[in-house]
Records
---
Amino acid sequence: MPWSSEPSVTTMPDQVTSSPSIKLRYFAWVREKTGRAEEDIVLPGSVSTVAELIVWLKSRGPEFEDAFRRPNVVRAAIDHTHAKPEASLAGAREIAFFPPVTGG
């Protein structure tokens, strides 16, 4: 799938349609593997943590399965704050996924 800078809105069958959308952003090789930089989604009712979101994302297709193959390597931020896998998504407006960052 070619990379696109255009945001998209993803509708999934198990979504709760009255929920507000949340922006997902993908950086570096996570973006390359998913084929998109960002998208707006409505979280399924079964997703309430970063770890559950990753499991759900992996089910969306081979490009997401590949990007999140090693979830312990992918980092997440909720509204610009680093988040652990067990972090709650309640009230989040943006979730970003990126590889580990090293300084030098």
---
Amino acid sequence: MGPNRKKIALGTLVALETVAAALAWRDLASRTNDEVRGSKGLWRLFITLNPGNSLVYWAIGRRWPERPSTSPHSAAPAAAGPH
């Protein structure tokens, strides 16, 4: 890989990390404390410190909403009554 390709690859990587960190910061700002695992301030610092930490926030730090179960076994039982 030549020097120009290395510069392009590094520039692309820096740009992607900057976008990922900005999106993580924006998401973190829009969440309540209950929607984040741990301290929001520590997550801001952690995201800033190291490239790739924004991905750790998305994987671990953010509490994802519970999905409703689509299993047919999870439906409420029919009301029992005289037949």
